TrEMBL record:
Residues 1-21 form the signal peptide. This is DOMON domain-containing protein. Keywords: Signal. It comes from the Eukaryota.
């Protein structure tokens, strides 16, 4: 489990240039979906990736995809618990 999580973190970091290079910022607003995505790579020497996603309540889930196409990409799917006190973040790999 730990090695797959480490691989996922490495993959996400390696793909961030696609997102940040296109927007030249760590915040992205998608008006069609009324969604905000923020990605932050802390400058404290850690290997952490901080991200924030805000989307309307009527969506059942939100997702962020990393890659240059839908095929062979990593997608993080996020959805709230029934009581809205916690959030599940589930990594998915596309084929």
């Amino acid at each position: 489990m730990a090695s797959s999580l480490l691989w996922l973190m490495f993959y996400l970091i390696s793909q961030l240039h696609l997102v940040l290079g296109q927007t030249n910022a760590s915040n992205v607003f998608i008006p069609e979906a009324n969604t905000i995505i923020s990605i932050n790579l802390p400058d404290d020497g850690s290997n952490d990736i901080n991200f924030y996603v805000s989307s309307p309540d009527w969506y059942q889930y939100s997702a962020i995809g990393f890659g240059s196409s839908m095929a062979n990409s990593v997608i993080l799917v996020m959805y709230p618990s029934a009581d809205r006190k916690s959030v599940t973040v589930s990594p998915r790999f596309t084929k």
